[in-house]
């Protein structure tokens, strides 16, 4: 009798282990960002196209529910226009190492929805100002903003994924910032210096493709 009980427990344990191992995945992904810096500071700003690239892991939790942490390099920012029609083109470039922590639910075998927090660490920040001179030649000047931007960023992401049987997947995700991009001493966005009291947040729409196994 005891042997039967032990055998049953062992078989249940092995079944769960094999099932869990079959759903655990590692992968890589990359894609396009459509990013902007919005919030209270939105005058004369618009989004920019950038990119993201990194890796992920997917852990089974319960039936149809998994946990998917990712580690991504994400280029973000926004473009700022002056009121003058012949004013310079000013692009704020913010590069982050992001850690999305996504809960992922499979509605059907190959289609899932996801949501969760995202933690970000600022790697670099700069303004790139391109002006046209009297001769018609354009000149570009770069200003380092690393000391004026908050080192940490926090956001919430929601999205969806479709996975092919070959392990290839495509994702669509939107991440809205919840923390202030500005450091306490303020930040220069375009020609305007904001203060910490003026909240600026990161907004990013991501389209990704990747492979996991």
Whole-Å distance between the termini? 41 Å
Name the structural class.
mainly beta
Tell me the number of structural domains.
1
Form type: elongated
Main sheet, how many strands, which sense, barrel? Answer: 8 strands, antiparallel, barrel
Number of helices: 1
* Strand count: 12
The level 1 CATH classification is Mainly Beta
Q: Can you tell me the CATH topology?
A: Porin
Helix-strand topology string: HEEEEEEEEEEEE
Could you characterize what this model shows?
- The chain is built from one helix and twelve strands; from the N terminus they run H-E-E-E-E-E-E-E-E-E-E-E-E.
- The chain is mainly beta and 213 residues long.
- It has one domain: Porin.
- The strands form two sheets. The protein has an eight-stranded antiparallel β-barrel with strand order 1-3-4-5-6-8-9-12.
- A hairpin with a 2-residue loop joins strand 3 and strand 4.
- The longest helix is centred in the N-terminal third of the chain and has 22 residues.
- The radius of gyration is 22 Å and the shape is elongated.
């Amino acid at each position: 009798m005891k042997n039967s009980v032990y055998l049953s427990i062992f078989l249940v344990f092995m079944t769960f282990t094999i099932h869990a191992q079959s759903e655990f995945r590692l992968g890589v992904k990359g894609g396009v960002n459509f990013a902007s810096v919005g919030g209270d500071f939105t005058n004369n700003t618009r989004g920019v196209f950038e990119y993201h690239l990194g890796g992920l892991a997917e852990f089974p939790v319960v039936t149809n529910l998994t946990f998917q942490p990712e580690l991504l390099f994400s280029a973000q920012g926004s473009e700022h226009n002056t009121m003058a029609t012949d004013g310079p083109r000013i692009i704020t470039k913010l590069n982050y190492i992001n850690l999305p922590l996504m809960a992922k639910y499979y509605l059907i075998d190959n289609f899932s929805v996801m949501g969760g927090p995202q933690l970000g660490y600022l790697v670099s920040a700069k303004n790139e100002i391109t002006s046209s001179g009297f001769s018609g030649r354009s000149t570009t000047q770069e200003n380092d903003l690393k000391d004026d931007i908050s080192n940490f960023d926090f956001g919430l992401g929601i999205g969806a994924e479709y996975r092919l049987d070959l392990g290839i997947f495509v994702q669509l995700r939107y991440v809205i910032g919840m923390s202030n991009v500005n450091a306490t001493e303020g930040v220069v966005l375009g020609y305007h210096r904001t203060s910490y009291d003026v909240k600026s947040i990161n907004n990013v729409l991501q389209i990704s493709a990747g492979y996991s196994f």
